[in-house]
Specification:
32% strand; 11 strands; 7-stranded antiparallel sheet; two-stranded antiparallel sheet; 10 helices; alpha+beta; binds 2-acetamido-2-deoxy-6-O-phosphono-alpha-D-glucopyranose
Length: 257
């Protein structure tokens, strides 16, 4: 039973009970959570209390509400480690998920000043814009807009990128993604992106910007992506190289090999 005399609010206690069910594995992904009235009866709390607990768990991405069907335990988030340079395709395959992508845009364009600087382009250069919706087991995960160095990546213009791996294609043309610099910003998902990702407008998403370099340390792609905040966890291992006497390559950097 929940403790009505505790300083911890009832909804919070109920939320912790539900989290326990999920974390212990008693409620597996896809498990249907009892209805609001059932939970209210089990824990002797009001519908408002139950609603508040469920709403927070939905926001945290632990539960999933399906209109007209009920509330279910969500699939665990994709955990991505930040020590290796990988492609979306590799990340999904390593997790036993089927990667897929829909091409939203593939064309030549004039780069913005930021893209021009990131790719170290000459004034008159154009870039290839490849925008894709990335899916795992048919579930939309991210929207990626890659600005690609024209000379290095022109094979992309003739390729069918639907469901294909950009990095695999580039490697077959002897361009090896070797290191990247990446930054994350938490943002509220804009309208168009939210429709494509199948989430409500304003949901938390991670805006990721990446500059990727080839084996000659030349930048070939500048990517701006929106990753679903409810489907991803990014993990990094931190160590104090300075104290350990080691040589840190600089914070925020990671390399492929
Ligand atoms: C990752 C990269 C993206 C790259 C893509 C290639 C992030 C945030 N982005 O999604 O920059 O273009 O992989 O994947 O990690 P692909 O080879 O499957 O097309």
């Amino acid at each position: 039973m929940l403790d009505g005399n505790s300083p911890i609010p009832l909804y919070y206690q109920l939320k912790a009970r539900i989290e326990e069910q999920i974390e212990s594995g008693r409620w597996k992904p896809g498990h249907r959570v009892p209805s609001e009235s059932e939970l209210g009866e089990i824990y002797r709390v009001s519908r408002t209390t139950v609603r508040q607990a469920l709403a927070e768990l939905v926001n945290q991405g632990m539960l999933l509400r399906i209109q007209g069907k009920g509330t279910f335990v969500a699939e665990p988030r994709i955990q991505q480690r930040l020590s290796q340079l990988t492609s979306f395709t590799q990340d999904m395959q390593a997790r036993g998920k089927q990667p897929d992508s829909q091409v939203l845009r593939l064309e030549l364009a004039s780069p913005s000043p930021q893209v021009k600087e990131a790719l170290q382009l000459r004034a008159e250069s154009q870039v290839i814009v490849l925008q894709r919706l990335r899916l795992a087991d048919a579930v939309p995960m991210a929207i990626e807009t890659a600005y690609l160095h024209f000379e290095k990546c022109k094979a992309v213009l003739d390729a069918d990128m639907t469901g294909a791996s950009l990095y695999q294609l580039l490697q077959s043309f002897d361009l090896i993604p070797t290191r990247a610099r990446q930054q994350w910003t938490a943002v509220a998902c804009p309208g168009v992106e939210s429709r494509l990702l199948g989430i409500s407008k304003g949901s938390p998403v991670l805006r990721i910007q990446r500059t990727t370099y080839d084996q000659y340390d030349h930048p070939f792609e500048q990517v701006e992506s929106y990753y679903r905040g409810d489907r991803y966890i990014f993990q990094a291992e931190l160590s104090d190289h300075h104290l350990a006497g080691g040589n840190s390559p600089g914070s925020g950097w990671f390399s492929g090999k």
